[in-house]
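JOB MANIFEST
job_type = single_chain_structure
chain_count = 1
residues = 524
[input]
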Amino acid sequence: MSLTLRPYQNAAIQGIYNYFKDETGNPLIVIPTAGGKALVMASFIEGVLKVYPDQRILIITHVRELIEQNHAELKTLWPQAPAGIYSAGLKKREIRAQILFAGIQSIHKRVYDVQQCDLVLIDEAHLIPRSSNTMYRKFLDGLKRLNPMLKVIGLTATPYRLDSGLLHQGEDSIFTDIAYEVSVRELIDQGYLSRVISKRMATELDVSGVGTRAGEFIARDLEAAIDQDAITQSAVNEVFAYGHDRKSWLIFCAGVDHAFHVRDAIRAKGVSCETIVGDTPSAERDAIISDFKLGRIQCLTNANVLTTGFNAPAVDLIAMLRPTKSAGLYVQIVGRGCRLAPGKTDCLVLDFAGNIARHGPIDAVKPKRPKDGCDGDAPVKACPDCNSIVHAAVRECPDCGHLFPQPQIKIEAKASGLDILSGGPPQWLPVTRVSYARHEKPGKPPSLRVDYWSGLSSHSEWVCIEHAGYPRQKAASWWANRAPGMPLPRGVNEALAVSDRLKCPAHIAVRPSGRFTEIVGARF
């Protein structure tokens, strides 16, 4: 069966090949939830084996649904693929398959049964703990003892962890670089993901008295603070008020008991609702999810189980009744509503938990570093007419057109945060001239500064020609668009020497980014 890859999926695969031309580390591929990582993996695997037919490839994760989904995607793309599954949960142990999709829980002690392995792809790479004493780490170390040339590639929508920060930074990190990354905002603007909108809720969960352990709210205390009948009834009333024209509701709860209590409150108002928790038997869980996807069940509540590997495109309402300090968990939750589906125009996110204010827009989350002690809220505000949550800098509500008053001018000690997703599409501006200069930053390689002028206003970007890893890959793509056939210069001075031969964009796309703008596209 022929499947057509989207441009960014092709770019991700090319990013892997480009990376290994110059580097020997373990790169990450960052594609948002619902962006089609399974197809990227399948196409990459097919390409590798058709050029290097003796390669042995292992795809590992610890989510049962993803093992099945990734295997099915490859067989759809390449029906003759020599692929098998090794997973106790799926009752399959095809360990001799050349392409092996495996659950880490099942295979981590079977290094010497796996034997030869040339390439490992790790799906949902953010689930790997940083500690050296983990199933993943021991398994990979064992494979590397058998094959020191083993290559490891991670795929994720969220390249960071609550306890250890960015996956490719720090002494103990498995991954070393980002080989390719595409943002949620880009895929929404290009029509590949569903738009998400959010509303300020009258019911606000108070977690001021809930303690923190290992950077996250203490689970038992969090559920005790939230799982109260008055709060549940109030929140459910608001869900019904906003969700009367929504077809598929997904609710994230603070614990097992809370999930069942919310389910009962939903049912009491006449809407079909089921609950999935960690102890839900596999057969029952599969049946519930199937009925939910088919529309036989309108609402699904859950506690900590439907954030990874759960694919229900029709979801058009998400209610967050589970506060979290994990930026990754927050993005994964909202990502469940980003898939496209027939008749679906957007997904409404009802944030009772304060997660948007805590972490900011899902397309511009800046995860806190471990132990940085920063718990400030992201700069957002609510529209007084329709309650949509927008970035503090937005002047016109994208949902109802309300015009916010002009702010008083004041000096800020530092730049504000990035814009929220509901801030609208980028603005295309005509380019009247371009200038180039060398940009120096203490402790960093120099970069090429590019200033685009549109009338009397200017917008800047920095091209990291002399950097390593992903920044240089982006620079190569930038250069290829403006100098077809010319190799990427070795340094900034060499680039400046031929800058008069670069193509000038007719228009650039800009978007607010705090007090400044960022350039997110160019037309020639």
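[summary]
Confidence is low (pLDDT under 50) at residues 372-379, 407-420.
The longest strand covers residues 447-454.
exit_status = 0
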